Give the backbone structure.
Amino acid sequence: MRKKPKWPNILSKPILLPSMEALLVSDEERQQQYSEQFGERIEALFQHYDVTGTHDQKWMLLVYRMVRDLIPAFQVKYQKAETKGWRGTGGTELFADVQSLVREGKTERQACKILETSRRFSRRYGGKSSLWPRYMEVKKSHWFLTKLVTGDEERRRHMTTIIIENFALFGFRGEKKPKS
């Protein structure tokens, strides 16, 4: 279960407006002040959740990340039985970890070698060798993942981000990656 996010300063305080009884402030001025502060907070949310992209993508990704952080019904908890084996979530995790390294400029084959040898991934893959054939098996058996991350560049990047954030060992926003 994810911890509630620690909000940056601007997001931890309410919008402050002049009192309704203040005679020197017009409704238009009050509305202007509200709009400015509201806009600043929306921008702060985009920054806090590291959201970029087109207008529609930004809003969809912001909603996705916020509900995942704040609403228990959208948080993922894995059952122990599901985490074993390459055909279950273990395969999805392998796929996501490889894709996270591909994003860093590695080839899929290089990524598999890093997963086998790097201390960063030792808790998940320590002692396992020959991840490349397993990754190719996962790619074929998890055809739905492959379909999600292929196609036009914009869609591929967006869907890969979501998969990596949910399944990659160190793909979650805000987690510190151990040194390799």
